[in-house]
């Protein structure tokens, strides 16, 4: 049977659509696709709410179980999972209204806001690591920032995914340190060109080619971010003396101003007494 | 470019319990396995040779035929190592080597060693690389075979109406009829139209996957090829 280009494209599309006739979901349309699955928007007819349905090859049925075990405010909650008539698996999850992190970052949020989002991503990752789950493909496209500022890390733990080039560690075997590399790459992605050198150094340390030279865990990286935000020296950067003085100055500005005022008054009094 | 060749290789029999390529070879069914390979790859190989080596219709047919004949003689399937590449890539590279050596030999005979590709205008105008043409034709032939399988399956199990609705809607060359029009034409409910379409699409997908199973080394490569087709 001859198949034209347009019919071929149509068949590839419609034959890949999930058959949801045996479920309580009604397909609305595709909202995203990755190397391992396609995500559709669907209407849950029972509850009258919209949901995101991710459809995966049957060999990846474990992904839904992995994510369902990760109950964290920055990880998209899974409602349920099921098997389609053709053997593929799907899981339904919260449909997040918002923007992907890459698009969110394109709007140039302030440094403080970028760091807030980054820390939420890091907290989700740290939690997953504490449960023995690694992400394997962390990148801005897998992070959603909701309309209320909530942050969700998505697309967890698919075994055969080897990462996305710009965010993939050069490691032969993916583990927690590979996730830390990707987290560093996400930080670098979020930083403006004129980012403080301490933050660039944190991203650089997380992205060291040698896994042993990176942060040992996500908490250490987040602690360095917190130190930066509190005006303290970060582990990742041996700062020059002038920079240390400047940081000391900006951290203790009030004290220095009081000291300066006190010295000025003392000097003025001394000057007046000598008249 | 010349009109499409009518030669398409054997239209390999659809097996309900399809063995993988390596399982078939291991079971001594090399001939059957090669039939499946030729059914799927004859046209992609032919098109690839035409575009990459600028061959005319007859030369491309001859080269394609020679390639598969040589493959039969030279333990082509037995030498495939799935650890090194997918079968699709292995076959395409083997075709490239074979056709290049044949092309060079033909040119040596004609011109005493000069190799000059003859431009074919419509091929030159194509923006697709020979590898993209190969990939596209591979997908086209895969679906073409699966559609033949689907038609046969529908006839076997008395679901001709399912196929007619599927054909009228999903295989329509231009504008698709509405579900309501299809329902009225076949005097069935509109929900029956959508159910028949869902069944046909689901079955087509299974048949495509079955075809893929017959030309891949095992589960891992099958999954990769399925992603290539469906993602």
Strand share of the residues of chain A? 15-25%
Radius of gyration of chain A: 25 Å
- Principal-axes geometry of chain B comes out as globular
| CA-based gyration radius of chain B | 20 Å
Uncertain spans of chain A: none
Rounded mean pLDDT of chain A is 90
H/E element order of chain B: HHHHHHHHHH
- Chains forming the largest contact: A-B, 26 and 29 residues
Low-confidence stretches of chain B: 1-16, 112-124
What does this molecule look like?
The complex is a heterodimer of chains A (275) and B (231). With 275 residues, chain A is α+β, with helices and mostly antiparallel strands. Chain A has three domains: 5-94, Phosphorylase Kinase, domain 1; 98-239, Orthogonal Bundle (Transferase(Phosphotransferase), domain 1), CATH 1.10.510.10; 243-274. Chain A contains nine helices and eight strands. Chain B is an all-alpha fold. Helix content of chain B is 69%, strand content 0%. Chain B has helices at 21-26, 30-53, 57-73, 87-111, 121-125, 130-156, 160-170, 179-186, 190-214, 219-230. Chain B starts with 20 loop residues before the first helix and ends with a helix. Mean pLDDT of chain B is 83; it is low at 1-16 and 112-124. The interface between A and B is medium-sized, with 26 and 29 residues.
Condensed summary:
The complex is a heterodimer of chains A (275) and B (231). Chain A is an alpha+beta fold.
Describe the SSE topology.
The complex is a heterodimer of chains A (275) and B (231).
Chain A: H1 5-14, E1 25-33, E2 37-44, E3 49-56, H2 62-68, E4 78-83, E5 89-94, E6 98-100, H3 101-106, H4 111-130, E7 143-146, E8 151-153, H5 176-190, H6 197-206, H7 218-229, H8 241-251, H9 253-274
Antiparallel strand pairs in A: 1-2, 2-3, 3-5, 4-5, 6-7, 7-8
Chain B: H1 21-26, H2 30-53, H3 57-73, H4 87-111, H5 121-125, H6 130-156, H7 160-170, H8 179-186, H9 190-214, H10 219-230
Helix pairs in contact in B: 2-3, 2-4, 2-6, 6-7, 6-9, 7-9, 8-9
């Amino acid at each position: 049977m001859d198949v034209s280009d347009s019919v071929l494209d149509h068949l590839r599309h419609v034959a890949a659509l999930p058959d949801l006739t045996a479920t309580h979901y009604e397909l609305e349309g595709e909202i995203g696709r990755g190397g391992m699955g396609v995500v559709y928007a669907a209407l849950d007819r029972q509850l009258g709410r919209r949901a995101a349905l991710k459809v995966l090859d049957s060999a990846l049925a474990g992904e839904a179980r992995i994510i369902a075990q990760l109950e964290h405010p920055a990880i998209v909650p899974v409602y349920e999972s099921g098997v389609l008539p053709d053997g593929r698996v799907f899981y339904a999850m919260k449909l997040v209204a918002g923007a992907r992190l890459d698009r969110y970052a394109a709007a140039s949020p302030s440094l403080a806001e970028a760091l807030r989002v980054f820390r939420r991503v890091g907290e989700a990752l740290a939690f997953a690591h504490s449960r023995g789950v690694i992400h394997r493909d962390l990148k801005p496209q897998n992070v959603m920032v909701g309309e209320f500022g909530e942050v969700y890390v998505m697309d967890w733990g698919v075994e055969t995914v080897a990462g996305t080039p710009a965010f993939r560690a050069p490691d032969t075997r993916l583990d927690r340190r590979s996730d830390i590399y990707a987290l560093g790459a996400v930080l670098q992605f979020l930083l403006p060109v004129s980012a403080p050198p301490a933050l660039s150094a944190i991203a650089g340390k997380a992205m060291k080619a040698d896994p042993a030279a990176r942060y040992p865990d996500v908490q250490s990286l987040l602690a360095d971010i917190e130190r930066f935000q509190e005006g303290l020296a970060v582990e990742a950067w041996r700062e020059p003396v002038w920079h240390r003085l400047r940081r000391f100055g900006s951290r203790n500005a009030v004290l220095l101003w009081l000291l300066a005022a006190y010295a000025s008054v003392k000097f003025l009094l001394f000057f007046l007494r000598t008249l | 470019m010349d009109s499409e060749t009518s030669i398409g290789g054997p239209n390999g029999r659809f097996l309900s319990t399809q063995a993988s390529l390596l399982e078939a070879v291991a079971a001594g069914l090399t001939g059957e396995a090669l039939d499946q390979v030729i059914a799927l790859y004859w046209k992609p190989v032919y098109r690839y040779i035409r575009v990459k080596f600028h061959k005319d219709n007859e030369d491309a047919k001859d080269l394609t035929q020679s390639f598969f004949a040589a493959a039969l003689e030279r333990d082509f399937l037995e030498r495939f190592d799935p650890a090194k590449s997918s079968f699709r890539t292995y076959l395409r590279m083997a075709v490239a080597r074979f056709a290049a050596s044949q092309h060079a030999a033909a040119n040596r005979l004609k011109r005493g060693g000069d190799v000059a590709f003859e431009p074919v205008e419509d091929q030159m105008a194509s923006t697709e690389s020979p590898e993209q043409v190969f990939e596209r034709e591979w997908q086209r032939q895969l679906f073409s075979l699966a559609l033949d399988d689907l038609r046969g399956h529908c006839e076997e199990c008395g679901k001709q109406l399912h196929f007619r609705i599927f054909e009228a809607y999903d295989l329509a060359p231009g504008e698709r009829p509405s579900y309501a029009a299809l329902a009225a034409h076949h005097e069935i409910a509109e929900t029956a139209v959508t159910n028949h379409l869902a069944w046909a699409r689901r079955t087509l997908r299974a048949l495509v996957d079955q075809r893929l199973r017959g030309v891949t080394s095992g589960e891992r490569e099958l999954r990769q090829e399925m992603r290539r087709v469906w993602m």
